[in-house]
Amino acid sequence: MNSTDIISVIVLVGLFWIYRHLESIKQFINEQFYDDDPALGVNSSGCRDIAQVLRENDKNYLVLFGSQTGTAEDYAKKFGKELTARFQLRVMVADLENYDFESLNELPDNMPVTFVISTYGEGDFPDGSVNFEQFLNELEEGDDSLGNLRFSIFGLGNTTYEFFDGAARKALDKLQNAGANLIGKLGEGDDGAGTTDEDYMTWKEETIDLLQKELGLHEDENKEYQPSFIFTQMNEITDKTSLGEPSKQYLPSETLQYDVDGKQRGPFDLNQPFVAPIVESHELFQSPERNCIHTEFDISGSEITYETGDHLAIWPSNSNETVAQFLKVFQLNPDEIFDLKAKDTTMKLPFLSPTTIGAVVRYYLEITGPISRQSLGLLVNYAPVTIKEHVTRLSKDKELFAAELLKPKYNLADALLKLNQGEPWKNVPWLLLIEMLPKLLPRYYSISSSSLSEPQTIHATSIVENTANEITGINTTGVTTNLLRNISLSRTNDKFSEIEAMPVHYDLNGPRNLFADSRLPIHVRHSTFRLPKSSNVPIIMIGPGTGVAPFRGFIRERCAQVNKENVDVKTLGKMILFYGSRDNNDYLYKDEWIEYGKILEDKFEIDVALSRVQEQKIYVQHRIMDRKSEITDLLNKGAHIYVCGDAGRMAKDVQGSIVQILSESKSITETEAQEIVKAMKVAGKYQEDIW
Ligand SMILES: Cc1cc2nc3c(=O)[nH]c(=O)nc-3n(C[C@H](O)[C@H](O)[C@H](O)COP(=O)(O)OP(=O)(O)OC[C@H]3O[C@@H](n4cnc5c(N)ncnc54)[C@H](O)[C@@H]3O)c2cc1C
Ligand SMILES: NC(=O)c1ccc[n+]([C@@H]2O[C@H](COP(=O)([O-])OP(=O)(O)OC[C@H]3O[C@@H](n4cnc5c(N)ncnc54)[C@H](OP(=O)(O)O)[C@@H]3O)[C@@H](O)[C@H]2O)c1
Ligand SMILES: Cc1cc2nc3c(=O)[nH]c(=O)nc-3n(C[C@H](O)[C@H](O)[C@H](O)COP(=O)(O)O)c2cc1C
Ligand SMILES: *[C@@H]1O[C@H](CO)[C@@H](O)[C@H](O)[C@H]1NC(C)=O
Ligand SMILES: *[C@@H]1O[C@H](CO)[C@@H](O)[C@H](O)[C@H]1NC(C)=O
Ligand SMILES: *[C@@H]1O[C@H](CO)[C@@H](O)[C@H](O)[C@H]1NC(C)=O
Ligand SMILES: *[C@@H]1O[C@H](CO)[C@@H](O)[C@H](O)[C@H]1NC(C)=O
Ligand SMILES: *[C@@H]1O[C@H](CO)[C@@H](O)[C@H](O)[C@H]1NC(C)=O
């Protein structure tokens, strides 16, 4: 043997060894790089070049989403899943946030792209999609720089907002102007009409038909559900096992990071909340039917800061009742421990893993909310034989579906139990449920405190969603707000009769007692809802119901300016607050306004419209019209207008009355007055915080 032969033998032996140990090597690599951090699985080695990542992962279809609260993400995943299941496409579903798009015109094999984008703020892109928006803005118009790109697009929005589907419409425009080729039509899901699901179904069917033709796809007859994850049963709970911790940092295997002052390090956002102690919590209404909870979170143990006008995100968990119902219908064992691995690195794990089924159902999945027809469609194959035909019909007939399942406000578990006469659906794969259901996401609240007055506490004012349901006799309840109410009741021991009356109950201790002693995970989302820079600019605030929340913050801010910063009250601009409630029992913070008035003297005024204490409804906009000459005066002095609360009718009606006042006082048409309001909005002089 000469030396080359020896080297060859060594290499061969080496290769054979690698071959024999391939699985363990893969596993080792996975553990090193992916195991600890599910988020890391998203991009191959942190690469942001979209074409390269697709090439490296051997994909042939791309779905990109921009989402604020997860709806767009959810539809993007459903779309990707359907392409995979029906046509065996190798789909990558990714958040616009995680990639750069300079190579969008050079995708491997000229693969088509589907965009699913929601709109936030006032016709804006979701927070995470700013990089994509910037990319779009930098495209040269008419230069054909995206001439190779074929795409389809579905936008999500709510027609009650002025700039409906603003982000997707803008994306469509910019992409087409740069020469990209649209497949099918822009789909638009409208939350306002409550038709998002149906709008998606219609768009999806048309688009998939066209894609089939364009790509010559053949549908696989034997389309069985192919999970995107690998499930491994585990035997014991270790300190790496999540029991529902809101993020990895809270696992016992990790250590929380603190700064020199002993404050917990952020950033605190959708990836990591701060588990904040609730230092005050009480009922604000004196009404027998409705509840509104005032909650104060102490953020002094963290690096969190906020500004008056920001939003607080509160991370909820599901109630005992809804968890039990869900476990029952699918015959799940909450104590089962399992680990989840993505089949390929472009798939992100939906939650921390290893974990337990019970933790996932209580803390990680959105299991309430109306059942969707799309979801029912996915479950048809697993329906008990006796009802399969009926379930199939329901999943295809939208009127029947609406009448039978939406109208009674069933959630998924309720609906399935109802369809099967209270008997379980035993065959639904757990992994399908994980992939099908949205993540349980935090809810936002307009902060009702002032960062100047109380920098270390954040106040939230939340109306409890608990409405009677004539059809089922079981109240329809909101996840977060009933949790806040339970915490409030649990702090006042003498109210046992009321505790009995709660429609749902929660595990207030949380995973490994993390939430014991009234704690909840929170983070702050910065908004653009801001007082004028100068305190002498007059402000007109309009906030009926819980819409008053940020204005309590505004007024407390002005009080603190007087008390803490020695601002002379006489220099302050006029502050009028138009507030509305049903009667005196739901008049929020009634006594506080008197105290603020003592500090702010004649500069502050609250004008109250009680709607139900007389025959005729009196709303904030009626009070505004009654004082039109004063409003005109203030507007002439440069007053800013702020509107907060219900986006449905209130914000529109209020805008209508402002338009009318402008048109009368300036002797211009209503259309011209509309234009003034639009310009005020662009200039930040007419701000809305509506939901
Ligand atoms: C920017 C912003 C600011 C906000 N500020 C405030 C604020 O200051 N104060 C405030 O109170 N709210 C505010 N909200 C609303 C808040 O975020 C929540 O949406 C609200 O509190 C309900 O949350 P929940 O978890 O209790 O209800 P969810 O569980 O999210 O339920 C939402 C609604 O759906 C209903 N529902 C549940 N299941 C079904 C079903 N199967 N079929 C049909 N309907 C069903 C519930 O009864 C409820 O009314 C704000 C929202 C945004 C976006
Ligand atoms: N989708 C809707 O139609 C709608 C409407 C209101 C609130 N909401 C939602 O319900 C939840 C609870 O609301 P809330 O407690 O803040 O409000 P709320 O207590 O229900 O209402 C506050 C006050 O606003 C009045 N109001 C009703 N319609 C109005 C309109 N078009 N313009 C001006 N004022 C109007 C109410 O009068 P009356 O109740 O006596 O009419 C009441 O006096 C919130 O999440 C809110 O977004 C939805
Ligand atoms: C605070 C807020 C602002 C919104 N602004 C708009 C808007 O300007 N135009 C619009 O069409 N939809 C608007 N919407 C509706 C959302 O786009 C719609 O609910 C969508 O389904 C959310 O998708 P996401 O969960 O993926 O973010 C807004 C929703 C909220 C909560
Ligand atoms: C992807 O890679 C980038 C760059 O390394 C990193 O900042 C980002 O956090 C990664 N994304 C995710 C979601 O892991
Ligand atoms: C059900 O909702 C109604 C209001 O719609 C309320 O009066 C009643 O107390 C609620 N019942 C329970 C058990 O919470
Ligand atoms: C609320 O919390 C208390 C304390 O943990 C608990 O004992 C009670 O059963 C809960 N009640 C409700 C109303 O959920
Ligand atoms: C809710 O569930 C938790 C966890 O299983 C349990 O400790 C608690 O007692 C339950 N609360 C009620 C009121 O049923
Ligand atoms: C759409 O906006 C209206 C007005 O705020 C609101 O009542 C409705 O709940 C919104 N739809 C959804 C599903 O967010």
UniProtKB/TrEMBL annotation:
What does the cofactor field's note say? Binds 1 FAD per monomer. Binds 1 FMN per monomer.
Record-listed NADP(+) binding positions: 290, 546, 611-612, 617-621, 653
Q: Which positions in this protein are listed as binding FMN? A: 67-72, 118-121, 191
Q: Which Pfam families does its entry note?
A: FAD_binding_1, Flavodoxin_1, NAD_binding_1
| A cellular component term, taken from the record's GO annotations | plasma membrane
| GO MF terms, alphabetically ordered | flavin adenine dinucleotide binding; FMN binding; NADP binding; NADPH-hemoprotein reductase activity
- Looking at its record, which EC class is this enzyme? oxidoreductase
> GO biological process: any one?
ergosterol biosynthetic process
Summarize where FAD binds, as residue positions.
Answer: 443-446, 461-463, 478-481, 691
Q: Which residues form the FAD-binding FR-type domain?
A: 271-518
Q: Name the job this protein performs.
A: This enzyme is required for electron transfer from NADP to cytochrome P450 in microsomes. It can also provide electron transfer to heme oxygenase and cytochrome B5. Involved in ergosterol biosynthesis.
**Protein name (record):** NADPH--cytochrome P450 reductase
Question: What is the protein's major site of localization?
Answer: endoplasmic reticulum
Q: In terms of domain of life, where is this protein from?
A: Eukaryota
Q: Which SUPFAM superfamilies match?
A: Ferredoxin reductase-like, C-terminal NADP-linked domain, Flavoproteins, Riboflavin synthase domain-like
Key words, A-Z: Cell membrane, Endoplasmic reticulum, FAD, Flavoprotein, FMN, Lipid biosynthesis, Lipid metabolism, Membrane, Mitochondrion, Mitochondrion outer membrane, NADP, Oxidoreductase, Steroid biosynthesis, Steroid metabolism, Sterol biosynthesis, Sterol metabolism, Transmembrane, Transmembrane helix
Q: What PROSITE patterns does the record tag this protein with? A: FAD_FR (PS51384), FLAVODOXIN_LIKE (PS50902)
Please report which protein family the annotation says this sequence is part of.
Answer: Belongs to the NADPH--cytochrome P450 reductase family. In the C-terminal section; belongs to the flavoprotein pyridine nucleotide cytochrome reductase family.
As recorded in UniProt, its EC number(s) are: 1.6.2.4
Cofactor(s) the record lists: FAD; FMN
InterPro entries xrefs: CysJ-like_FAD-binding (IPR003097), FAD-bd_FR_type (IPR017927), Flavdoxin-like (IPR001094), Flavodoxin/NO_synth (IPR008254), Flavoprot_Pyr_Nucl_cyt_Rdtase (IPR001709), Flavoprotein-like_sf (IPR029039), FNR_nucleotide-bd (IPR039261), NADPH_Cyt_P450_Rdtase_alpha (IPR023173)
The reaction(s) catalysed by this protein are:
2 oxidized [cytochrome P450] + NADPH = 2 reduced [cytochrome P450] + NADP(+) + H(+)
Ranges for domain Flavodoxin-like come to: 61-208
Localization per Swiss-Prot or TrEMBL = Endoplasmic reticulum membrane; Mitochondrion outer membrane; Cell membrane
How does this chain sit within the bilayer?
Answer: Single-pass membrane protein
